[in-house]
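User: Can you help me understand a structure? I only have the sequence.
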Amino acid sequence: LGRYQDADGRYTQALAMMRKLVGDNHPDVAATLNNLAVLRAEQGDYKSAADLCRQVLAIWQAQGKPEHPLALVTRIHLASSLRELGNFGEAESLLRQVIVSAQKQLGENHPIALLANVDLAILLRDQDQVGAALALQRKIQPAVETAKGLPPQLIAAATSQLALTELAAGDTAAARAHADAAMKSFDKMKTVDAVSLTDVLKAQARVRLAEKDTAVGCAAAEQALALAREKFGDGSLRGEQAHAVHGECLAQQGHVTAAHAELEQAAERLDALTGPQSPGAHAARVALEKLPQPN
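Assistant: Let's start by predicting it. Here is the structure, written out as tokens:
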């Protein structure tokens, strides 16, 4: 948690200095704002991240380059933050714009186009358009796995998201295969991104718990919670998302009262952090509603 706070402070100081040197509408200012937006999103501060992304896009507009590849990347970041805040309409519009522009400028299988498609599929799934999401993810997954320029952690995250969509579609065998593949890919990585690993662990936990593989599912849930607590802190968005998955584990272990308490607290905190329409808050409430009443 301290690492993120230190980095946030450094970016903020660098931004102030850069604005004095080159002005408010310089591409270097846009790049620093974008990095700060990514950092805020990783901490779960999606409202701030979205605001910073809009500042970046305003700079590219002022530069006369609204379709610059770096502007397209920022639009993906903005759409991701808006999705987490439950603003699905604007997020979908942004992603579809990016896909058209990136494919035209850079090619159908360019990393920017692929990432926008992955995020669009997640967005469709969050809106219960599971069939459309699954078709899109299965179409692009071979290109994602072989794309040059995509970091391995992002490939693993995309694979785990495919697993979650397959789980939502009822294809548990395919979901398990992709969840396992995403987990194993971290064994080959020299450096591990805490954000991606936390998300992949949560996906692994959900898939295994859905299969009633309580031992493996709960082990993944506990690892995700420990990592989220260490890197982001209790009360953070990622921490509460991990608590929600851990609550599902407790329920499957038969600890219904503890599961109720953990899921209820996670749902309340996620509501406060991102609003009741966010995917994380919705998932926590759905899991809570499925629990039997504690004695």
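Now, to help you interpret it: Residues 228 and 239 are 5 Å apart (CA to CA). The first helix runs from residue 2 to 22. Let me know which part you'd like to focus on.
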